[in-house]
Design brief:
single chain, 506 residues, mainly alpha
Amino acid sequence: MSTLFRTKNVEQSIRDTEEPEHSLKKSLSALDLTVFGVGVIIGTGIFVLTGQVAKNNAGPAVSLAFVAAGVVCALAALCYAEFASTVPVAGSAYTFSYASLGEMPAWIIGWDLVLEFALGTAVVAVGWSGYIRSLLDNAGWHLPDYLAGRDGAHGFGFDILAAALVLVLTVILVLGMKLSARITSIVVAIKVAVVLIVIIAGAFFIHGENYKPFIPNPQPVPAGSSLKAPLVQLMFGWAPANFGVMGIFTAASVVFFAFIGFDIVATAAEETRNPQRDMPRGILGSLVICTVLYVAVSIVVTGMEKYTRLSVEAPLADAFKAIGHPWYAGVISFGAAVGLTTVCLILLLGQTRVFFAMSRDGLLPRFFSRVHPRFKTPHRPTILLGVVIAVVAGFTSLSELAELVNIGTLFAFVVVAISVIILRKTRPDLPRAFRTPWVPFVPILSVCATLWLMVNLPAETWIRFAVWMLIGLVVYFSYGRTHSRLARRDEAPAGEVPGPPPGNTR
């Protein structure tokens, strides 16, 4: 049992990053990290979920739902900021849990993050493909069904656009982080400009009557027993609320999807020039910017059109169409399509860094932990994962599996919050450039708030998540537990440092 919870101390984690063949290039600044955060957070969530939760759960008070979801993320962000500045190593929650909870919990969270980021990349790539096909259709160019992800005459369908996007982004990530940051900066500027257009232009069409009532009267929802129901409904018989104060919290568990991504900033800690100073700024800065933009957008769109008439599929664009300004609707659709590019790029970035860190620790084959001699990027896992995700995105719509992205992120939040408390107790001597305030109160509050959102997810999502975790445990016990670098150190004779495993020498 002791081997399952052996920890990798912070000093050793940092020393591993200095090995020439396994060392990533430090090129990112606080601005780059903030741009990455904004780039991955602002995606389909704000362009789609606003109308859904306003119409079904919160009414004009959807802005309060965004605030509630932002507070939950802020609690987690404070914990991430402390860890990322204290342990500036690739891997995010995986690396943090390895230093505090032990090897098996670290493997579980790493396995979880690999699924979360891979699935998120594929889902967003498919969504991007849909926007591009729509633009092509408007221009009179139509892809055949078998290349658009729909079954053709022979029962075969492959989404060529989604797969092509993932492959192009894979090449960009192999060529270097600075190039990725520059491209992300350009695309994020376009995306934020579109959001500002919605806020500024829409403010001129707000009608105060649309805000009445700001919090609609609650409507009872009968409790159900199907797997589609949230876990809390099956356990306690309580159904998510429509409207009223509880409707705001139900809406918060839905719009949380719009905030997913700020934790990916932490995966780039090893490639940051001054992580002790810049990681907290990048993580907290991107979250604050996006929360302000989300609240402003939700206030404007519910003021432009009565919440009962908002579109569920494209509420922002359709709100401008409803008031006779289709040009703005076209700009919003274009911004959404462009914005999804950076979401895919940064999700793929996060996954490759977690995979790279697990490989460097020996939990996955060390073959994948060597960086490119010229670009200093983890090219091997980037190429492998890029090809796999491109195939998955090409053949699968993944609509029902998208909720696994939510539960994977929330699970990581819980682990990081607990890890902060443990590391404060076990290693109070560590220099901490940023300290989470009011420990253990803030981490405990983060765990409680995160678990509340998790139990509001469908029960079948929990089942799929449990199956993936069981598969991960099988892989760990059959490979990772005996091949990890800590295992080799434990087996080495006293005073002798084990060399690299066979086959990994040049």
